[in-house]
Structures are given as C-alpha cells and as structure tokens.
TrEMBL record:
Cross-referenced InterPro entries: DegT/StrS_aminotransferase, PyrdxlP-dep_Trfase, PyrdxlP-dep_Trfase_major, PyrdxlP-dep_Trfase_small
Superkingdom classification of source: Bacteria
UniProt record similarity statement: Belongs to the DegT/DnrJ/EryC1 family.
GO molecular function: transaminase activity
Organism: Pontibacter aquaedesilientis
A Pfam match: DegT_DnrJ_EryC1
PANTHER family reported in the protein's UniProt record: 3-OXO-GLUCOSE-6-PHOSPHATE:GLUTAMATE AMINOTRANSFERASE, TRANSAMINASE
Name of the molecule in the record: DegT/DnrJ/EryC1/StrS family aminotransferase
This protein's UniProt keywords: Aminotransferase, Pyridoxal phosphate, Transferase
C-alpha cells in the first residue's frame, strides 16, 4: 500500500459545490456595501435561532466574547462562582475571569469526558451563580440532570456549545437548554466561518435585548448609550458565509458521524485503546474524534512518522495551567482530567476526508498496536 500524508483537518469542497455557494454569498455581501451588522447578520441570527429552536440569536465577534456577553447578560460578576469542567478549551475559563467571577473547576466523566451534574453538585457553594456545561468534542452533556440541579439550587445554566452545533439531548438541540448560551464559528468548528465569529442564544427577551446592546457599545439607537458595552459584532461577510454553511450543517454533521462510525467499527477490540463513548439520549457530532491510550505519545510519534497528523485536546488540564496557578489547585486535584490529558489523542476527521485517508490512519494504528501491544 502506498502511503501519503493525512492532515488532521482540511477544508474540502464537501458537500460538492458548497465552496462555490460560499464564494457567491461573499460576493453578494461585499456588493451590498453594508459591512457592519445589517440584513445579512439579522437573517443569519434568525436562521440560527430557528435551527436551534431558541427564541433569539445574537451574533458576536468570536466564541470567547459569546461566553463573556452571555455571562454579563445573565448578571454574573464579582464575587460569583461559576462551575466549569477541568478539561475544557481555555476560553470557557478565561471568559469567567473576564466577567469578574471566580471559576470553580469540576471533574469530567471518565467515559464521555463531559461534565456531569453530579460532579458539579460536588463543588456547589452558596456563592455558585452559574454552571457552564461544555458539550466537549461534539457530544451533548446529559442535560436533564443539569436542568434539575439548576432548578433545585436556583443557579443559571449557560451552555458552551462551541464544539457541538447540531448535537442534541433527548431530541432537543444543544444551545436551547440553558438560560443563555454561547457558541463559536471558528473556521474548524462544525459550523465554521472564514474567520472569527460567535453567537449568544437565548429565549429570554430581556437577556437577548441586553446582549444585543452590550455587543454594540451598549446602544439600541446609534449614539444613545444605555449601558457601557463593548464592540463585538458578528462580521457581515462572515454572516453571509454562515448562512450557507448553516443550511448544510446537518449534512456536514452526518458525514462526521459516518466517519466516526468507520473508526468505531474498524478500531474496536484493540487492547489498550479506548474509543469514544456516547451517553444514552445524547448525540455526538464529532467535532473531535478522541481516542485514549497509555501509549499516547508513542502512538502520536508513530503516526507522525507516517505523515498522519493528530492533535491533543487538551495536553494540560485547566488547573495545571500556569495562568491558573492562582486558583490554588494541585497536581492530583482532578485525577480524571489529568488522566484524560495524559492519554487523549484526536484522530483526523473532517467532512470530505477520503476513504483512503481514513484507511491509512486505521491500518497505521493496527500496526502500532501489533508492534507495541
Ligand atoms: C472554540 C471554543 C471556544 C472559543 O471560541 P473562539 O471563537 O475561538 O473564541 C470556546 N469554548 C470551546 C469549548 C471551544 O472549543
């Protein structure tokens, strides 16, 4: 068999013709000469809200800003504690600090890698104002338990669904459970722009009105400022791109799920290799296909030697990041998060990946475990 390079991620024309549609949308938006907010952004916001089954969507500059705007809108600030998983992309935690609140970390589930209501309940205090479940790798968190906990203890649920657009729990879309929720349109996300972008979604009209003002200098009407806001608007050209991509989101996610199933079928049964586990009632849209092995570093080097690119999400858990030393956690504070950081490897998976590329990844992994198993 001839071997060739396999990228971790690539932008392909999938489904065929989508690139041309995106280009046409860009040309149309550029020709409109309306470059800030306007009809294109409003149309995308409505289409996104409809797709998610939420009342309103507010386009912002990126996913991090979406989290900050969501928290500000929900009234989270100094003195408040916000529970976040110990194994998330750093943006989730940085946003809590930016809002002036205190991040409180909690252990993920060792099988799904997601935060559970049980783990969050263990670190709940009188100061807990919010919990941010992150639908990590594209798998929905078990939301019924979070909804119950939120009701019982009267805190705010904010979903970080940056990695999981189109995933669902119990048939309901992620991004529609929390009081106000945040997502990212970073180019490699399941719903990706051709640059930065993000959105806040909510069915609460008052929070939506606040978010809409806050992202645009605190004004409803130009030069009339009700609150001290920021500038974090979804770019109009990106909104035009996202309107096209949104129409194909289900198809793009189905292709990710098909590729994931091929990996599941062909990598099952290897001793020492743990494949992704999806919880009942949850769907997984495979933003990341995460495998685990105690030989992670060796396997990554082996694959790299054959031109197969992989990634690690994430090599250092939040509590062991230098930036978060001030939280006072230690090695050993979150054994599950630490174990995931030491054993996780993300395999190439993206819409448009060819069967030949995927077979090369699969056969290289089989050979590795024959040699090192
Ligand atoms: C990508 C991501 C973000 C932040 O998105 P940006 O648009 O890059 O700011 C936040 N949370 C999670 C879980 C992410 O994966």
């Amino acid at each position: 068999m001839t071997s060739f390079a396999v990228p971790f991620f690539a932008f392909r024309d999938f489904p065929a013709g989508i690139n041309r549609e995106v280009e046409q949308a860009l040309v149309r938006a550029a020709a409109s000469q309306h470059y800030i907010l306007g009809e294109e952004v409003e149309a995308f916001e409505q289409e996104l809200a409809t797709a998610l089954g939420t009342g309103m969507a507010i386009g912002v500059g990126n996913g991090y800003d979406a989290l900050v705007v969501a928290m500000k809108s929900a009234g989270i600030g100094p003195g408040d504690e916000v529970i976040v998983p110990a194994n998330t992309f750093i943006a989730t935690v940085n946003a809590v600090v930016q809002a002036g609140a205190i991040p409180v970390l909690a252990e993920p589930d060792p099988y799904t890698c997601n935060l559970t209501a049980g783990a969050a309940a263990a670190v709940l205090t009188k100061k807990t104002k919010a919990i941010i479940p992150v639908h990590l790798y594209g798998q929905a968190c078990e939301m019924a338990d979070f909804m119950q906990l939120a009701q019982k203890h009267n805190f705010i649920l904010i979903e970080d669904f940056a990695q999981a657009q189109g995933a669902s729990y119990g048939g309901q879309s992620v991004g529609s459970f929390g009081k106000i929720n945040a997502t990212s349109f970073y180019p490699t996300k399941n719903l990706g722009a051709l640059g930065d972008g993000g959105a806040v979604v909510t069915s609460d009209a008052a929070l939506a009105a606040f978010a809409r003002m806050y992202r645009n200098y605190g004004q409803e009407q130009k030069y009339h400022n009700k609150i001290v806001g920021i500038n974090s608007r979804l770019d109009t050209l990106q909104a035009a791109v996202l309107r096209v991509k949104l129409r194909y989101l289900n198809q793009l996610n189905s292709e990710r799920q098909r590729l994931a199933q091929v990996y599941q079928n062909e990598l099952q049964g290897i001793v020492g290799l743990i494949l992704p586990v999806t919880a009942p009632a949850c769907t997984h849209v495979y933003h990341i296909f995460n495998i685990r092995t105690s030989q992670r570093d060796k396997l990554q080097t082996w694959l790299a030697a054959q031109g197969i690119q992989t990634a690690i999400h994430y090599p250092v858990p939040v509590h062991l990041q230098e930036a978060y030393a001030f939280l006072g956690y230690q090695p050993g504070s979150f054994p599950v998060a630490e174990e995931l950081a030491a054993t996780s490897l993300s395999l190439p998976l993206f819409p448009g990946m060819t069967a030949a590329e995927q077979q090369q990844v699969i056969s290289s992994i089989h050979t590795f475990f024959k040699v090192h198993g």
